[in-house]
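Sat 14:20. Reprocessing the chain from the morning session after the first attempt stalled halfway. Input below, unchanged.
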Amino acid sequence: MSDLYVECLVARKPSTILTFFKVLLIMMTAVFVFLGLMFTPGLLVAIITGVAAYFTYMNADVEYEYLYLDKEISVDKVMAKSKRKKMGSFSVEQMEIMAPVNSHRLDSYKNRQVKKTHDFSSGKASQPEKRYMLFFSGDTKVILEPNEAMIKAIQSVAPRKVFTD
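Finished this time. Tokens:
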């Protein structure tokens, strides 16, 4: 069996706006629960703010899990370490290029018309750049932050398409 399996987990940078709303909605829920003990409409508002706080909490803590298996890159979104959603699956055979975001190798792709752009990275720019941009046939652009093992696995399958400089 020559199938190579690599897994990578990347935490998304927490949004300050979502964190603020999460705290605000939790506080509002607590206040309306106490008001709901005296007035019935307060309990209804407490339920609504509680549900809104739950969904804000789920979307404030996001991680992306990359899975490379059998020439295919799978991306899942893990929300609050409890709920998983499949975001996409990308074939390495349809990949045109994979290079760091600031690489000169992507210069010919800068003015390209892209139908879909997917950013599955942490959202943090770092030195040296850890985020990679992948272009696929069908005008799809994907931004990932893979680890070294995943880069080497993809490079072993498509050595002329993967650049690390």
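The chain is about 30% helix and 30% strand.
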